[in-house]
Amino acid sequence: MPDSPEYVPPKVWTWNKPSGGRFASINRPIAGSTHDKELPIGRHPLQLYSLGTPNGVKVTVMLEELLALGHAGAEYDAWLIRINDGDQFGSGFVAVNPNSKIPALMDRSGPTPVRVFESGAILMYLAEKFGAFLPAQGAARAECLSWLFWQMGSAPYLGGGFGHFYAYAPIKIEYAIDRFAMETKRQLDVLDRRLAENEYLGGKDYTIADMAVWPWYGGLVKGWQYGAAEFLAVQDYKNVQRWADAIYSRPAAKRGRMVNRVQGEPSMQLHERHDASDFETKTQDKLAPAS
Ligand SMILES: N[C@@H](CCC(=O)N[C@@H](CS)C(=O)NCC(=O)O)C(=O)O
After folding, report:
1. Among the four 14, 91, 206, 280, which has the fewest Cβ within 10 Å?
2. Residue 151 in contact with ligand 1 by CB distance below 6 A
3. What long-range pairs does 157-164 form, CB within 8 A, spacing at least 24?
4. Are 103 and 122 in contact (CB under 8 A)?
């Protein structure tokens, strides 16, 4: 457990006790692998190593959308990386993402495999590879990328800031919760104003910007994150609600949200995805009784 609010930091910080809280078992101050473990490789061109958190869902939504558009080259194997068990510190995973965080992608479609890490980089890579969900040039491309990078900079305040101190920290610190609730509500207002005048974040078209923002802020206003819907009065963000519902009504977004998901309704959990038919036959409600 951390010390009381009167804690006085020492001159030099040292890693001399567990940090407490939900992620105490995986938090550490050094990078690199902790153990040797090769990653599995499936039969498809794209190999995704991930978990169904908001950062992971961005990529599975994109892959399912690409497949729905008819891009057969976007067929993928989605392997489960259990971050609470430390899978992200295995040598194989670290070779794909030296930052030890999901999602991580290996594109094995060409003669030399290409690794891509960071969800924003993965979305851009896929959008450029398939020529989809990212305007090719000009103002529309600039707007899409602006919102994509807005997400990369903003979501850590929501997840690492608000979510951590409201839901996961071992003690409730009013200062921290106030600071990050304020910023989270400001961010929701930024989105709400944008979506009051535009159907999607980039403008009239659905793009990778929406796919990046939806799992975080769409999930928040739908009450899927941190049990904080009432606390943040998410019903007030009417345009964000409208946009979140519109994306959730897309079959590909629904499927993307199921992949590598390990909590919630068993019929919505597809731990690994290796074939389009897995959504019908391998969700946890179908597998669990047999296992
Ligand atoms: N900026 C990264 C963030 C990725 C990230 O934070 N992933 C989390 C899960 S949502 C993770 O793998 N955490 C494991 C750890 O911190 O050890 C991205 O967008 O890909």
Report:
1. 14
2. no
3. 157/183, 157/184, 157/187, 158/183, 158/184, 158/187, 158/216, 158/217, 158/220, 159/54, 159/216, 162/226, 162/228, 163/225, 163/226, 163/228, 164/21
4. yes
What pLDDT, on the 0 to 100 scale, is given for residue 76?
A: 98
57 neighbors 66 (Cβ within 8 angstroms): no
Give the strand pairing for 104-107 and 114-117: antiparallel
- Distance, CA 102 to ligand 1 centroid (Å)? 5
Residue 3 has pLDDT above 60, yes or no: no
Decide if pLDDT at 291 tops 90: no
Pocket residue to mutate for ligand 1, from 101, 122, 208, 263, most atoms within 8 A of Cβ = 101
| pLDDT given for residue 16 in this prediction | 86
Residue type, 231: F
- Polymer length of the chain: 291
Q: Indicate the range of 7-21, 169-183, 228-242 predicted with least confidence.
A: 7-21
For ligand 1, is residue 149 a contact (CB within 6 Å)?
A: no
Q: How far is CA 146 from CA 130, 141, 221, in A?
A: 20, 8, 22
Nearest alpha carbon, ligand 1 atom 15: 101
Token pair of 141, please?
Answer: 């491309």
Q: Is 118 in the pocket of ligand 1 (CB under 6 A)?
A: yes
> 180 alpha carbon to ligand 1 midpoint, in Å?
19
How remote is the CA of residue 55 from the centroid of ligand 1, in Å? 7
Cα angle 131, 132, 134; round to 5: 100
- Residue-averaged pLDDT of the chain: 95
